[in-house]
């Protein structure tokens, strides 16, 4: 990275302990690569895309002090007994992808969609799969790609 990237971490707090571990991995990766970050919390995974859009709107209106170069979405959806799981997983992923494409965002999606708590922890733990760190790395890699393609001017 030629400059310090400023990242917004959007955290779904429904499974707070899992999300905290995902955030720990994301923050470590951002700091390791010389970036800065801000964290915001939303109730659940379905609210994450809305929060990203709010941040984009705030940036376009210049009402935030330091604009974001990229976004990291964190949270967890554990399958239950109803089809609500499918709706939450599919709609949140689709909305994040739509925002990414429409606004050329550097966005790392670290929302875990799993069958049970054991799978969630295996993916979240920094000393295991570290999916929070992976989401932050994806975001930072996409920021770097945008820079190589000349898309970072003026933020």
From TrEMBL:
A Pfam family matched in the record: DMRL_synthase
GO cellular-component term (any): cytosol
Presence of keyword tRNA processing: no
Pathway, per record: Cofactor biosynthesis; riboflavin biosynthesis; riboflavin from 2-hydroxy-3-oxobutyl phosphate and 5-amino-6-(D-ribitylamino)uracil: step 1/2
Keyword 4Fe-4S: no
Enzyme Commission code: 2.5.1.78
SUPFAM superfamilies: Lumazine synthase (SSF52121)
Record GO terms (molecular function): 6,7-dimethyl-8-ribityllumazine synthase activity
Location of the active site: 84 (proton donor)
Binding residues for 5-amino-6-(D-ribitylamino)uracil: 14, 45-47, 76-78, 109
Keywords: Riboflavin biosynthesis, Transferase
Protein's GO biological process: riboflavin biosynthetic process
Function: Catalyzes the formation of 6,7-dimethyl-8-ribityllumazine by condensation of 5-amino-6-(D-ribitylamino)uracil with 3,4-dihydroxy-2-butanone 4-phosphate. This is the penultimate step in the biosynthesis of riboflavin.
PANTHER family in the record: 6,7-DIMETHYL-8-RIBITYLLUMAZINE SYNTHASE (PTHR21058:SF0), 6,7-DIMETHYL-8-RIBITYLLUMAZINE SYNTHASE DMRL SYNTHASE LUMAZINE SYNTHASE (PTHR21058)
Record-stated family: Belongs to the DMRL synthase family.
UniProt-recorded name of the protein: 6,7-dimethyl-8-ribityllumazine synthase
Organism: Tepidicaulis marinus
